[in-house]
Design the sequence.
């Protein structure tokens, strides 16, 4: 699949036609650009057509007006015949979306088989792609007025606690963006109230200013391992993997590398998993650096996101920290990219343009000639494969920066244990001992709710979701049955709908049920942290504040607790029901399980005393567990890579998945069967390709065939050569678009799928 892009410069001289045409990308699901004639009244903008690339324009499309982006200018329309409509308006008179974004959009469109207009829309904030006036979204910061600077805080009357916090922050940091202030719980209404008191004011950032003193606070004393890794990465521009155990001080390495880049007048981009972008993380960076830090994440309003995006694009933001989509942020002075927890699944977009932020970051580093550092205690097998075969540079840190020994890891064999409500007696005793010593316990169970199933003891009826092939989860607190896949919710029946029996019992356990069990065993507080209890960021922050007091308590939660937090009071970590990850149809399940074990276990002993981790299992002899108790993720990765090599699975091959869904399951199968025939025919027409190079597997139903009322099926293409596999799909792509059966389904191609 190729998208025609007209980017040749066309100078409007007397020897050339006066009429020029722009090729416009529109945010619609069509794989093409659209020609529009430039009206005579905009002739003055065509003196140098290069300046028009990336300009926003308003154009007629059907019977409506749309905002698009200029991708090319030409003296002739792309398509002969037919009347070319004139564009309605130039929203900007000079390029607004930088060339680096346009270049990346072109690449993503072709690589991910995604419409060019929708590719651009994925990369930029909505208020920008909607064509709204830029004047409203120029980057602004908050600063103290002269009165605010000279008036001692203790002399101010009628100042609330949060207003005082805001003033203290601005005294310390001179000026701060609203987004950054909000990470310290300061709201815009608080700042407006202070502005009325003439204590603070908004200031416009209109010129690039280099902060003379980048460092705000001195770093801690680095270990010899950290110093060596920093030297090795600084000495060689390239693609680096930082393989460091939990607590080894990877963040300090990142900060030192960022400091070196900022000293050179360049920008730094830090990507973190969605779950890892916490106020604790932000405060740590802002405490270190006296520079403009922009934050980008999904919880921001679109206006806030646009302001930070503009600051980075203009070069005002020295350091950008964000989640997956921040990888598209334009940064003209980019000097380094850092991906924390590079193995994390949240770096892969699961709908729309199904991109990998890690892969795009690697590409950007290559294009902008800067280093990229990917850090993890449990690197993905793909990245470890790239170390072995593709020249990625490996740096290891095997010791905790605090000097404390790694946690004591133990398996609790459930075949030989007495359990109370699913928790072994040995585990309960260890928890009791830990709490008695004034320390904290973290209990991890990656399943929320009270019980994952409700079953009638008399006839065997189960509470199923009417929209999905899934059981409804009992949430006793709200007395509801909920589907965790489509959010269907209903009340809990008082009797069985099939036999009218009242013997309906919950089976299995979730965090809500374990919370009840622990409250019955211990007098210390049990704090449950999952999506059901932490419904707002304010509530979550208050919970973290209480945990960080260090008082003896039990923390119970899902992955919300397992990443991005340093709980210095946690001595013991308990892992429940981990065996589920060993028996999945997902070939990546064992890799994900081993990563989860290492990450959760790494929460133990982050303070000055060695911690302990207890894992309940019925499979204590499984290789993943035997490697885990030895703190040997190297051995785990070797074991898993050997499995992948023997079975010919990624990273030793490459996948492209054709997904199809429709309310009628036969329609999805018919489309995928037609698609399979198209791929087989293409193989016959390309002698350089063969079934030895490419396997076509399916159609088969998805692991959960019916979800949210639609039936889902897959066709999988597997090849040993990425370029050949991509070439095959590109040769068939427009055939797929025009298949009659394609009109009855929703379908998408996914490169390097992570979930099936």
Sequence:
């Amino acid at each position: 699949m190729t998208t025609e892009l007209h980017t040749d410069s066309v100078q409007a001289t007397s020897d050339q036609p006066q009429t020029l045409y722009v090729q416009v990308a529109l945010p619609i699901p069509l794989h093409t650009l659209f020609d529009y004639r430039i009206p005579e009244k905009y002739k003055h903008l065509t003196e140098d057509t290069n300046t028009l690339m990336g300009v926003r324009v308003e154009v007629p499309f059907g019977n409506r007006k749309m905002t698009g982006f200029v991708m090319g200018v030409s003296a002739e329309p792309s398509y002969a015949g037919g009347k070319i409509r004139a564009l309605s308006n130039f929203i900007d008179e000079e390029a607004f979306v930088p060339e680096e974004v346009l270049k990346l959009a072109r690449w993503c469109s072709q690589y991910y088989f995604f419409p060019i207009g929708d590719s651009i829309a994925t990369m930029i904030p909505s208020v920008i792609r909607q064509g709204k006036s830029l004047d409203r979204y120029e980057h602004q910061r908050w600063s103290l007025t002269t009165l605010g600077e000279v008036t001692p805080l203790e002399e101010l009357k009628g100042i609330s606690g949060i207003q005082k916090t805001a003033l203290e922050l601005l005294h310390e940091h001179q000026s701060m963006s609203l987004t950054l202030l909000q990470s310290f719980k300061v709201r815009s209404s608080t700042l407006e109230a202070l502005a009325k008191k003439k204590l603070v004011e908004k200031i416009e950032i209109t010129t690039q200013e280099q902060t003379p003193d980048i460092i705000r606070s001195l770093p801690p004393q680095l270990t010899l391992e950290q110093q060596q890794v920093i030297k090795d990465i600084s000495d060689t521009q390239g693609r680096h993997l930082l393989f460091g155990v939990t607590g080894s001080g990877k963040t300090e390495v990142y900060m030192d590398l960022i400091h070196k880049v900022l000293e050179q007048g360049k920008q730094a981009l830090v990507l973190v998993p969605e779950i890892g972008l916490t106020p604790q993380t932000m405060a740590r960076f802002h405490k270190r650096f006296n520079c403009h830090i922009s934050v980008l994440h999904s919880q921001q309003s679109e206006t806030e996101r646009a302001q930070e995006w503009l600051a980075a694009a203009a070069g005002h933001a020295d350091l950008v920290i964000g989640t997956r989509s921040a990888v598209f942020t334009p940064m003209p002075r980019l000097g380094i990219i850092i991906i924390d927890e590079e193995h994390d699944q949240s770096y892969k977009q699961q709908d729309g343009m199904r991109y990998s932020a890690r892969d795009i970051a690697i590409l950007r580093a290559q294009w902008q000639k800067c280093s990229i550092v990917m850090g993890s205690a449990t690197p993905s097998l793909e990245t470890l494969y790239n170390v072995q075969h593709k020249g990625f540079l490996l740096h290891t840190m095997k010791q905790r920066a605090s000097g404390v020994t790694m946690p004591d890891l133990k398996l609790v064999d459930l075949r030989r244990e007495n359990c109370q409500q699913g928790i072994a007696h040995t585990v309960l005793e260890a928890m009791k001992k830990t709490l008695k010593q004034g320390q904290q316990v973290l209990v991890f169970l990656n399943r929320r709710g009270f019980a994952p199933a409700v079953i009638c003891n008399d006839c065997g009826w189960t509470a199923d979701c009417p929209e999905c092939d899934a059981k409804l989860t009992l949430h006793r607190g709200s007395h509801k049955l909920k589907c965790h896949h489509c959010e269907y919710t209903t009340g809990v029946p008082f009797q069985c709908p099939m036999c009218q029996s009242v013997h309906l019992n919950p089976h299995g356990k979730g965090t809500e049920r374990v919370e009840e069990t622990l409250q019955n065993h211990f007098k210390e507080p049990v704090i449950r942290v999952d999506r059901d209890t932490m419904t707002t960021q304010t509530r979550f922050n208050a919970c973290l504040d209480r945990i960080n007091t260090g008082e003896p308590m039990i923390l119970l939660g899902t992955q919300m607790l397992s990443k991005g937090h340093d709980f210095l009071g946690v001595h013991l970590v308990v892992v429940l029901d981990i065996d589920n990850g060993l028996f999945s149809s997902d070939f990546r399940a064992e890799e994900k399980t081993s990563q989860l074990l290492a990450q959760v276990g790494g929460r133990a002993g982050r303070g000055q005393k060695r911690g302990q981790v207890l894992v309940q299992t019925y499979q204590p002899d499984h290789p993943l567990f035997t490697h885990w108790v030895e703190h040997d993720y190297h051995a785990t990765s070797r074991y898993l890579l050997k499995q992948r090599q023997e079975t010919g699975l990624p990273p030793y091959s490459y996948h492209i998945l054709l997904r199809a869904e429709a309310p009628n399951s036969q329609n999805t199968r018919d489309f995928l069967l037609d698609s399979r025939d198209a791929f087989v025919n293409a193989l016959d027409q390309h002698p350089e390709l063969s079934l030895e190079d490419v396997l076509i597997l399916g159609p088969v139903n998805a692991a959960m065939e019916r979800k949210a009322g639609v039936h889902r099926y897959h066709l999988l293409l597997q090849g040993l050569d990425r370029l050949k596999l991509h070439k095959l799909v590109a040769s068939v792509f427009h055939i797929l678009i025009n298949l009659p059966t394609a009109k009855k389904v929703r379908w998408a191609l996914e490169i390097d799928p992570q979930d099936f």
Remarks:
- The chain has six domains: 21-131, 140-204, 224-397, 408-447+510-647, 451-508, 654-751.
- Residues 1-14, 134-138, 206-212 have pLDDT under 50 and may be disordered.
- The chain has 22 helices and 32 strands.
